[in-house]
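Dear support,

I submitted the protein below through the web form. The confirmation email said the job was done, but the results page showed an empty box. After a refresh the structure appeared. I'm attaching both so you can tell me whether what I see now is the final result or a partial one.
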Amino acid sequence: MKCTKKIYMSISLFTLFNFNNSYSQFIEQHLILVIIDGARYSETLGDTMKQYAPRMHELALQGAVIDTFINDSLTYTSRAIPAIWCGSWKAPRDTVINGNSTQYATVPTFWEYFRKDRNKDSTDALYITKYFSAPWLPSFHQNYGPSYWPMFVMQDLVWSDLYVWNLAKNTLNNFHPKFSVLYLADVDAAGHSGNWDNYTRKIKIADSIVGMLWNFIQADSIFKDRTTMIVTNDHGRHLDTVSNGFVSHGDGCWGCRRIQFLAIGPNVKKGVSIIKRKIPDLAPTIGAILNFNPLYSTGTAINEILKPILSFDKEIINFGNIHLNLTKTDSFKIYNSGAANLNININSLDHIIINPSTAQIQPHTFRNFTVQFTPTDTGSVDTFILINHNDEKQIDTIYIKAKVLPGLDTLLFKVNKGWNLISLPLKTEKSHIDSIFTNHSSKAFKYSNGYQSSDTLEYGIGYWLKFNDSTVVQAIGESVSCDTINLLSGWNLIGTISHPVLRSQISTIPENLVSSKIYSYNQLYFPIDTLYPGKAYWIKANTDGKIILRKNELYRKN
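What the results page shows now:
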């Protein structure tokens, strides 16, 4: 059969991908709803012999089944299909398209809710079906309507379910939509024919399509592990003891009312639910999975089969170098991309504090957790925090790494009111002048062929800094007993090490590099014999070179 025309019926376009960067760790969810028109429950999941729907029986073992899922109102297609779309039995209205009578929904459909709430393009919301010259239409609701309709994917001369499957496979591969509805119509038509073999053969074909669709999802890198598939019917058929049996439908007998519900994918728990559910519950359930609100639906989400989906923004927290008994803080996020609350309980070692340690994360949201690490021993740290939760895996870990160095030293030195020559007496991670000097009244100025202002201090460099009053400064950091400082030809403003250094014990590369006395400042310049921690000094070099400062042995503690 040659296909001559494709119809992609859509109304308006938005950006195909519209991710907020702060949500980049969410696992974007996809959903495909398969509607098999007019299959009786006794020939689908209710068939204990599994002769007509073997693939769906296999998938049922991996997914969720609702034992009693019903059409709770009108058991014929023109009313039940819109009820699935809308989550409501509110009656459609008649209209005419291309000279053909049809109907449109009077409340918004799940496609309209999805596209508006999620700001999605029509290529993310598909209705894949056989060819209709006048298809049933979504709503013209003033707050939703044609701007949010799905893309109708139909192809001229495509009438059978297998042709619809081929159309679906190509379209899903091209667009990878977030929300698709696949409508298979052959079973109902075959049932009305009165030929039992033809009716059951069409069920077998629909069953194979469901199996091929799931295999396709698992083989696709975008859909795999991100796609929930739901398979249901719009109505069943008469019981064999009612009217002409499987041939017709439309009343309130149990055969017409009871339909199947099969869901499989990352959003659903495995197992059979015995809670009675109905057609209007489909739209809220899909809304819970895809994160939209079906405002006018009369149903409720089938929460008993839904589960959370956990993901992190990081798997390892590396604190790097940290000194003994100091504290470092980092954080991580836990995302819930699923349709049910995610319950978190975190266990860790005593010196690792997690805040909060317990939390409940709502669907499609995230929570930030802080990690406070205070090491109690030196050496390499390679441990983890244990995260217990109600996602399928139940337990996850985030690894904690660090290198713990010996504890830091504290050093006190005095500064005078007014301008001072100062330097960092210890190596410290906190080098902003505000974190060390609380009483200063100027920026710091270093010298390199002219003065340069700075808000941060660098170890080994000397600075001018002005203070409001005389005070004692406390510096905390890593003590240095020997260091080499680069000098440029001419005058240099240098810092010093964490211990006093005698002028006579200073060595240089090359020898005789220093061509001046070493000067300090206190209201005026004066030459010095000893360099003290926290101070800075002027020194003149006759060429580029290095000065080597060592701890003065006379000041060594016994």
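Response: this is the final, complete result; the empty box was a page-load delay. The chain is about 15% helix and 35% strand.
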